[in-house]
């Protein structure tokens, strides 16, 4: 899963994968859990962005989901 300010940006705001623990696949249950740690989100600033999730099955890349994301400034301190 990659989050960018806009689709044309080469830099990403957030990159979550199974390798870095940001995505956990649920096997036969078919679930996809997405979790970003405080370290991964510490440099995010409030604003709008876009995300896309791709699944890799062997050598095939499958576009799974994409859309808009809103990043809010922390409210509870």
Question: How would you describe this structure to a colleague?
Answer:
By secondary structure, the chain is mainly beta. It has one domain. The chain contains 1 helix and 6 strands. It has one helix at residues 38-41; strands at 2-4, 14-15, 23-25, 32-34, 47-57, 60-71. The strands form 2 sheets. Strands 2-1-5-6 form a 4-stranded antiparallel β-sheet, with no helix packed on it. The radius of gyration is 14 Å and the shape is globular. The protein starts with a strand and ends in a 6-residue tail after the last strand. The model has no long low-confidence stretch (mean pLDDT 91).
Which series of helices and strands comes N to C? EEEEHEE
Distance between the termini: 28 Å
What is the radius of gyration?
A: 14 Å
How many DSSP helices?
1
The secondary-structure class comes to mainly beta
Proportion of strand residues: 35-45%
Low-confidence stretches: none
Query: Can you list the strand order of the major beta sheet?
Result: 2-1-5-6
